[in-house]
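Quick one: structure for this chain?
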Amino acid sequence: MDLAYLWFFIVGVLFVGYFVLDGFDFGVGMSLPFLGKTDLARRQIINTIGPVWDLNETWVIVAGACLFAAFPEWYATLFSGFYLPLLLILLALILRGVSFEYRHRAEDDAARGRFDWMIVIGSAVPALLWGVAVGNIVQGVPLDADHEFTGSLLTLLNPYGLWVGVTTLLLFFLHGVYFIGLKTDGEVHDGAQKLGKQLAIPTVIFAAGCVVWTIVIAAGREAPLLWAVIACGVIAAVALLASVAFNWIDKDGKAFAAGAITIVFAVLTLWLALFPYVMPASNDMANSLTIENASSTDYTLTIMSWAALIFLPLVLAYQAWTYWVFRKRVTRSYIEKASAVAH
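Got it. Here's what it folds into:
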C-alpha cells in the first residue's frame, strides 16, 4: 500500500482514539448540571476523569502533528479555513483544563460554581464544534484552484455540519454518562443510569439521521469504499442500540463498551466516506485535495512510519497501564474521607 494512503488511515485511527477517550471526558463535563446536585456529587463526578483527562487530550495533539507532517496541504487548508471554529475549540479546552486544576483551590461555593460552568462550557463547545468541523470536511467546502477556503463561518454552519455537530455532542454526552455510571456509586450512579435512558431517544434519532445522510453524500460522490461506509454505519447503529439496552438493564460496563464501539464506527463511517479525498471542493471537484496531492514526500512518510512503529505501542501500553491503575470506582465514601482530611 502507498504510504500516503496508509497514513490517511493512521491519522483516522488517531482521531478515533481521541474521540473515544476525550469523548467521555466531554460527556462527564456536560453532565455536571444534571448529576452534580451537591458539591460532593460534583467532586465525585470530576474525580472519575481526574487522573486521565489530560492523557486523553494528548491524542488530538498527536493526531494534529501527524496531520501536519503527513498531509501539509490538508493541514494548511484546514487550519486557515476553519480557523475560528478550531480557535474556539482550543480556547474551550484551555478553559476546561484550567477549571479542573483550580476548582479545588476555590475558597467559596460561588467560585467553585463558576469553575463548574467553565467545565460544562469547555466540554460542550468542543463536542459540538468537532462534529461541525468533521461534517464540513466530509461534505466538502468551497476551495479555489490553490486549495484555499473561499467561504466564511456561515458556510460552515450548514444543515449537515450542524447535524453532525449535534450528533457528536449527544454521543459524547451519552458516552460520558455511561462512564459515570461505571465509575461511581450511590446517587450519582443511579442518576447517571436515569440520565442515560433520557438521552437515548434523541441520540438514536440524530445518530441514525447522520449515518443515512453520510451514506447519501458518499454515494453521490461514488465513493470507492461505499460498502465499508454502509457496514460501519450499520455496526455503529447496532452498537448504539446495544448500549441503550445494556444501560436499561443496569449493565454499566457493557453499556460503556458498546458506547465506545458506537463512536469508533461512527467516526470510521465519516472517515471512509471521505476517501480518497481529504478535503473535497463543493464548488468544483477539480479543486479538491486528495490523499495523493496533499501528502508529504515518501521519504518523510517513511521516517514517520518507523517512528510510529516504535513509539505508538509504547504510548498505548502506558495509557493501558494508567487506566488499569485507576480502574476502581470513585465512591462517595472516598470523596467524603478526602474532604475530611482536607479540612
